[in-house]
Amino acid sequence: MSDNTGTILLIGNPNVGKSVLFNRLTGADAVVSNYPGTTVDYTMGKVTIDKKTMTVIDVPGAYSLKARDRAEEVAVKMLREHPRAVVIIVLDATRIERGLYIALETLEMGYPAVVVLNMTDIAKEKQILADAGKLQKILGVPVVATSAISGEGVKNLGDVIRKAQIANPEEIKARAEGKEIKPVKKPGCAGCGGCGGCGGI
């Protein structure tokens, strides 16, 4: 499996709705394969963004990039095999804190990223406030709220993928501590995702 600049990796814990989100993005034409030398499977499909066809890979669910099982080992290998990929980090909106560990690990690797707060419909039912805007300003990358089951927010995600940003771990720590960080213009952003990276909050 070689690197491809037209690759999108879906990363996240198990049971956060990654597979449903993958199906929403790619449609029915998906291929399920075993990662070479393992029994761990992953799904691959295509999505067209701005007339560019990109490969989407639903990476096996993982809680950490410090691999403790075969699925996490495969997740780490897939990230390393696609160093120029765009990463979509999927979090469960009802348990955001549970997914932040792998989210921060992934952001620290320097990938252009978008964070998805999925299952927002369930969060609303449970009266859990999933503040995408606040998380977006802390992480410095676009954050999109979705409900993959209903399709809510998926179109917006498609539009925001091209605005993926590389996070600055030191700035994330400072913002989480309540410190004000002056936005610095970042190259490569096709438009304002509201993450603050380009100053367009």
TrEMBL record:
Q: Where is the FeoB-type G domain?
A: 5-167
Name this protein carries in UniProt: GTP-binding protein
Q: Which GO terms describe its molecular function?
A: ferrous iron transmembrane transporter activity; GTP binding
- Name the Pfam families on file: FeoB_N (PF02421)
Which SUPFAM superfamilies does this UniProt record tie to the protein? P-loop containing nucleoside triphosphate hydrolases (SSF52540)
Listed GO CC annotations: plasma membrane
* Superkingdom, natural source: Archaea
- Which CDD domains does the annotation name? FeoB
Q: Which Gene3D superfamilies match?
A: P-loop containing nucleotide triphosphate hydrolases (3.40.50.300)
Q: Which InterPro entries match?
A: FeoB_GTPase, G_FEOB_dom, GTP-bd, P-loop_NTPase, Small_GTP-bd
Q: Which PROSITE patterns match?
A: G_FEOB
